[in-house]
Structures are given as C-alpha cells and as structure tokens.
Amino acid sequence: MSFNQSSTNNGDAEVCEVHHTHPDKLRIATLHQLDDNTCLHLADLFKTIGDQTRIKILSLLFAADEMCVCDIAEALNMGQSAISHQLRVLRTARLVKFRKDGKEVFYSLDDDHVVKLLSQGLEHVLHG
User: In this structure, what DSSP letter does residue 102 have?
Assistant: First the structure.
C-alpha cells in the first residue's frame, strides 16, 4: 500500500491511494476496541487533566508527595478558593485525595496510577 502526502500546507493528512482493508488487523482491533462508556470515562479523565492549573497542582503533589491547600496556593501564586475549586475537580476525577489534620487539609495523588499517568505524559512531552 502506498501513501499520498499532500504537497499543500492546508493540513491534509496522508491517505491510502487504494482502498484495501486488512481483515487480520481489523479482527484484532475489533476484539480490543473500547466500549462507548469506557471511552467516555477516559475522555473525561483527559479533559480533567487537560488544564494547565490542574497539571501544575498534580506536578506539585507529584514532587512533594503531600501539600496543604495554603502551600499549593502559595506555590502557584493563586487564591485558596481557586485552588480549592481545582482540587475539587481533581478529587471528583479520583486523581487526588485529602486528609484533614486539625484545621488543615492536605492533598496527595490518589494512587500509583496517577503517578504513572503523569510520569508517562511528561516522558512523552520531553521526548525529542
């Protein structure tokens, strides 16, 4: 199969010059295809992570292991209410968890899956 790359700069993608399917690849892909509900949840996860402030919060928690809301707000030069809102979004997505210690609230990454997600995303972004 050959590909035709557009010579114009209008964003055309490379496309097959002939229509020829590969049944063995289609069969394997179909067996591993995600259902609509799983796709929706995964898309929601990436939408949640796809915010610069939330990425900054997650990276702080990744580095420091645990931080109180005051420290996160100070580190990002933002108000506590704005940080609390973003933490609520992250908590709803099960990306962070919290614990109370007296009058302070400390946040940390929810589990190792979040650590892996951040690590692999960062590795991908930094890869030349």
Answer: T
